[in-house]
Amino acid sequence: MPDPIDAAVGREVAKHRKRSGYTQAQIGDFLGLTFQQIQKYEKGVNRISAGKLMRLANLFGVRVEVFFATVNTPEEEKEISRQEAKELANYYMMLSPKMQKEMTRFVKALANE
């Protein structure tokens, strides 16, 4: 399974590649790689080196930090989880008492899997 950070960076590379109108083969040629290697980078299966990220940033005309734009820090992940929990609790409170019991039973079953 790909590392979540490598996958997020790969998605950003793919987004900027497509936005710039390049194919995976063209990026592969630019970096001296095969298009299959670019596919693996974009899926997060393989890690992209700092040097290659810098070259891609220059090619796309962006700062290298943009490739990390969707990477969440552990603290941000906790905050996202807290926000989602609050949202779930608000929806739960909108349910009838009977549906609340059913939902509780459902969530417990999911948690035990």
UniProtKB/TrEMBL annotation:
SMART domains named among the record's database cross-references: HTH_XRE (SM00530)
Molecular function, one GO term: DNA binding
Every HTH cro/C1-type domain range: 13-67
Keywords for the protein's UniProt record, in alphabetical order: DNA-binding
Name of the protein described by the UniProt record: HTH cro/C1-type domain-containing protein
InterPro entries for this protein: Cro/C1-type_HTH, Lambda_DNA-bd_dom_sf
